[in-house]
Predict the 3D structure of the following.
Amino acid sequence: MSDATAAGAATPAAETGDTILELRNLQKHYGPVQALKPATLAFRRGEIHAIVGENGAGKSTLIKLLTGVIRRTGGDIVWNGSIVALDTPQEAIDHGINAVHQEVVLCRHLSVAANIFLGDEKVRFGLLQKREMTREAQRILDGMGFSLPAGAMLGSLTIGQQQLVATARASLRGTKFLIFDEPTAYLTRQEAAQLFALIRRLRDDGVTIVYISHRMEEVFELADRVSVLRDGTLVGTRNIAETNDTELVAMMINRSIEQIYHKEKVPFGETLLETRGLSGKGFEDVSISVRRGEIVGFYGLIGAGRSEFALSIFGRNPRTSGQILWKGQPVDIRNERQAIRLGIALAPESRRDQGLNLNLPIGLNINLPIYDKLTHGLTISGREEAQRADKQIKDLGIKTPSRRSLASSMSGGNQQKIVIGKWLNHGADLFIFDEPTVGVDVGTKAEIYRLMADLLKNGAGIILISSYLPEVYELADTLHVFRTGHLTGSNAFHEATHEEVLAEAIGV
């Protein structure tokens, strides 16, 4: 299929009557900004159709248009042969269009069962039938292959488990067209396998799946077709059997896949951090060291103790035993302020919950750690505040019309850049990056990797925590593997194979 055919004409599905939803010159403008340029594309009934593209390419805009969150500027949406408005989320749901978002938007203070039946509660004589809902929800979860307790509070589950609950809820609401936005970002391998099995079962039952992911291996494992967006333009659509990751990356960013991972050899300097037998909540007896110019990688399954160990170094979680040395001197880091003063910065795993104030402007988020430097007497220098924020926005390529835009309005990749920019603004000797590229496109990944290289050349050390083995394998000078709170392996760059590292992580 040529790009012109994919972007400007009906697909074969439209000609054979196999189409459930069709976009005809669909577009969305925000003033002069074209978030989605005229796009024509058909989705087939009972297919898995992947959508790939960089952050800012138009994927989020497309999701919002299809789920009734925003109204289109032009073009038509055709549902089962009839033009529909989709002006509200409820209208989309009534048609059978639903979405499972990257960030869980359920009620953490309610039980799993209550979340699954939210809005469709079982009531008898005006009384909520909690036991009946719990039994029914457990039957549903078991039937989907999700090993989750229906009676537990949602907030007690991991982010990945909450994502599975959101999936279960979405697939039960008369759904005929289900959109997944980065669904495996926080899932373990086992949870991802459970999700993939459900997606295939839904497809076999005639549900159309739109699968949005930055992980190419998932696209090729699941999808029947894939469409590429770039800068708000639909570049093309391919049958998955007739393309490869090299072609898709080139379509997405006009760059070869070999250019994504950016590894430079930087001479190692003094030892910045050393831990000796450090123990705390979720980890035990961990000894590592980080030098200037070095990337030390932590790999392991979610819950293996990697993040808990990092949070202890940063002073957020107390250590119970062991020793921390900073530049050769013993230190007792009891809180984050002490860590920051020493020269340690943390870009946390959950940027939305732990790294950003979403309802504040981008500029304010970027400047948060340095307002003491911007304050003269009792006033903040507006000129310095603007200059500092604008410099990070420019240097990091944060796509925003203004520093005054809210952080919540940014894509996942741009939000991650804001978190990183905040600490670059402050400055540090040791940067801890916990899952820095979750939900981030390949282009932004390359930018983050180049940023890491610059930090190393400027004398910093880096701890890189990642659940994505290719990432940490290609970038870490020293790779530590965590399992059940313990170190199970420590390898120099490419000293072990992918298979050996994975075996250390899962204990086989």
